[in-house]
Request: fold
Amino acid sequence: GDVISQLIETQRTQRGELMQANIHLSQHAETLEQLATSRERNRLARELHDTLAHTLSGLAVNLEAIKIKLGGKDSEVEDMLDDALQNTRNGLTETRRALQDLRVKQLEDLGLQIALENLAHELTLRSKIKTNTSIDASLTDLSPSLEQCLYRIAQESLKNIHQHSHADSVSIFLGLESNILHLRIRDNG
Reply:
């Protein structure tokens, strides 16, 4: 009877150790996946910077040169050049913003709370939309994948508000209510 009890106890201990090893392996696999995703985003950002951003910058310089060469001789052509130049500059600005968004460095470096506050501040600078953030600072044990998900949801929501809502104020809430995590983004548009 003692031998069987010892075998059962040994088996129970081994199962517990195996479960712990599986948990660690899962966490390691998730970390590797996040690292691979981050590297791919950085590679894509570098590639876009080296091609699209440089092309748009060169185009803006060429349009400026054409405008100078024209010297005000043809106002209709100059107006068309001004429109093309403005569109090029807007495209370059959006490309740079997209490249920054791809990197998501501030989420890794600063944490979710500051990264969300920075998103709100950037929206205000870009659009004059007033932002109010209420982010629970005690939310420190969120997994990196959940933080990334929350950041991307907020990022896309604020982008949509900027482009489509005609709002002049936005509130962002992240916190626990009745032990449930809530991310609420509301605008008045």
Summary: The radius of gyration is 26 Å. Residues 106 and 118 are 9 Å apart (CA to CA). The chain has a mean pLDDT of 87.
